[in-house]
């Protein structure tokens, strides 16, 4: 957590592997949680990454769909 240099290296490796230009737009998203919005600000301000935050409860799911029991 908080290893921003490693994140930068991983992004660079992904661009290289996918044959993308170094200046291509990077877009990320993550679920807003207890870590707050500092990650969002860091990604956008320090890395120039377009970052989208979503609330997991906003994702539409079929509540009637049968789920596997997990209380065994």
UniProtKB/TrEMBL annotation:
Superkingdom in the source lineage: Bacteria
Protein name: Transposase
Species: Candidatus Kentrum sp. SD
């Amino acid at each position: 957590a908080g290893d921003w240099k490693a994140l930068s290296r991983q992004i660079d490796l992904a661009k290289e592997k996918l044959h993308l230009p170094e200046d291509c737009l990077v877009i990320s998203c993550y679920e807003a949680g207890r870590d707050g919005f500092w990650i969002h600000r860091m990604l956008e301000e320090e890395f120039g990454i377009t970052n989208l935050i979503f609330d997991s409860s906003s994702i539409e799911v079929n509540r009637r769909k049968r789920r596997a029991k997990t209380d065994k």
